[in-house]
Amino acid sequence: MCNFSLYSHSGEVCGAVSGALMVLGSIYGPSDKSEVHKKALTNSLANDFVKRFKKINGTVNCCKLLGYDLSDDVQVAAAKQADIFIKKYPKFIKDAAAILEEIIAEQNEKSAV
């Protein structure tokens, strides 16, 4: 079980997921409070992204994806010893990038209509 802290790397949300959500926010998010429709769109796209990532990987929780509690120094050391970051992270990054590309392509198609 992961022990989560909002102020340190805890393994709560996969970094690849966080990064992809930031990209969606930067592309589709509102630039000011009056753009309520953009906020709704961004929230919808973020939810869609998470659903797709979970469908492929089962979760967006980093600890569960890696199988180690990243808030525990001993387990982080064990994960490093097992090369877990090298073995597993590339897949999550690839999956996140592919989903992000799909969502952006779908939005481009919708805006071209």
Count of folded domains: 1
Beta fraction of the residues? Answer: under 5%
- The coarse silhouette is elongated
Q: Average pLDDT across residues?
A: 89
List key phrases describing it:
elongated, 113 residues, mainly alpha, 5 helices
Note down, in words, how this protein is organized.
With 113 residues, this protein is an all-alpha fold. It has one domain (15-112). It has helices at residues 15-28, 36-57, 62-66, 73-81, 84-112. The radius of gyration is 16 Å and the shape is elongated. It starts with 14 loop residues before the first helix and ends with a helix. The relative contact order is 0.17.
In a nutshell, what does this entry contain?
By secondary structure, this protein is mostly helical. The protein has one domain. The protein is built from 5 helices and no strands.
Chart the SSEs and their pairings:
Layout: H1 15-28, H2 36-57, H3 62-66, H4 73-81, H5 84-112
Helix pairs in contact: 1-2, 1-5, 2-5
